[in-house]
């Protein structure tokens, strides 16, 4: 009896309790107040709602997710190769995102002179901002981008489609909108110089998009909007430069070997790495107001 009682006492001492910073324990796994608050910070919580009620709702959401995750592990999902690959992708993406976010904390808030200079140098993003309605043909990028030169003589989107058909390249037609504020300035300058109805071709990773402008509407930012937008754009560009340098430093020190046929393309040029742009786009932006006065 003494041994059994001691054993029972030892077991009860190992049990985790829902107290202090621990809001709940789900099959031995703790859920902390910090985890609840992080969930609330990521959500758009309505004003005027009791904080305790919001915490209770967030906690129940976490509890339900934890239970389903535990059930998934019991079924062996966490040993599935597809899961392991996805887990690594998400983990690396989060690490890089937070690495970029931390870099952003070292940046100074641009002053009014810097903001004015930026808006003047980026008219397509501010004073001349325009939203275009475009018709597009989307197709897979050829192994050799030089093959796209066959499209240079096309004067209409129909001619682009005919050339792609001759080349044996499948494509899909669609309509879309293009915001000039989201297009690199040099590229936007080339696009607006085209004759009406003349197509333009933009390679983007594994796909290529041929577009033609069908309609347009000017939607410039007003004075109240342009300041915060410019501040965010300036900070994003500075963060991108920091991350680009860090990536370059990491590559310089790294030992990388490629299987034959998987080497980086020779025509990759100085284009920003998608890993950098994704990190900047996904990093939560701190609320930074434009200078006033």
TrEMBL record:
InterPro entries: PPIase_EpsD (IPR014274), Trigger_fact/SurA_dom_sf (IPR027304). Transmembrane segments: none annotated. Residues 259-293 are annotated as: Disordered. GO terms for molecular function: isomerase activity. Keywords: Isomerase. This is Peptidyl-prolyl cis-trans isomerase, EpsD family. The lineage of its organism: Bacteria, Pseudomonadati, Pseudomonadota, Alphaproteobacteria, Sphingomonadales.
């Amino acid at each position: 009896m003494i041994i059994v009682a001691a054993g029972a006492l030892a077991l009860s001492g190992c049990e985790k309790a829902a107290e202090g910073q621990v809001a709940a324990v789900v099959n031995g796994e703790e859920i902390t107040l910090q985890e609840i608050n992080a969930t609330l910070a990521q959500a758009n919580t309505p004003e005027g709602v009791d904080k305790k009620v919001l915490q209770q709702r967030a906690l129940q959401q976490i509890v339900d997710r934890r239970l389903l995750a535990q059930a998934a592990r019991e079924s062996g999902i966490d040993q599935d190769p597809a899961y392991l690959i996805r887990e690594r992708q998400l983990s690396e993406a989060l690490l890089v995102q937070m690495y970029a976010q931390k870099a952003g904390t070292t940046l100074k808030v641009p002053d009014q002179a810097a903001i004015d200079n930026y808006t003047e140098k980026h008219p397509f993003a501010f004073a001349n901002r325009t939203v275009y309605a475009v018709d597009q043909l989307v197709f897979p990028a050829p192994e050799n981008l030089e093959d796209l030169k066959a499209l240079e003589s096309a004067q209409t989107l129909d001619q682009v489609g005919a050339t792609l058909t001759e080349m044996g390249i499948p494509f899909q037609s669609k309509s879309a909108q293009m915001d000039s504020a989201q297009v690199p300035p040099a590229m936007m300058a080339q696009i607006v110089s085209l004759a009406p109805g003349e197509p333009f071709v933009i390679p983007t990773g594994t796909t290529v998009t041929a577009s033609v402008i069908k309609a347009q509407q000017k939607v410039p930012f007003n004075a109240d909007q342009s300041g915060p937008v410019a501040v965010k754009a300036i900070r994003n560009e500075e963060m991108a430069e920091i991350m680009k340098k860090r990536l370059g430093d990491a590559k310089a020190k790294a030992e990388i070997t490629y299987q034959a046929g998987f080497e980086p393309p020779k025509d990759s040029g100085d284009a920003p790495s998608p890993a950098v742009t994704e990190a900047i786009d996904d990093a939560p932006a701190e609320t930074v107001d434009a200078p006033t006065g």
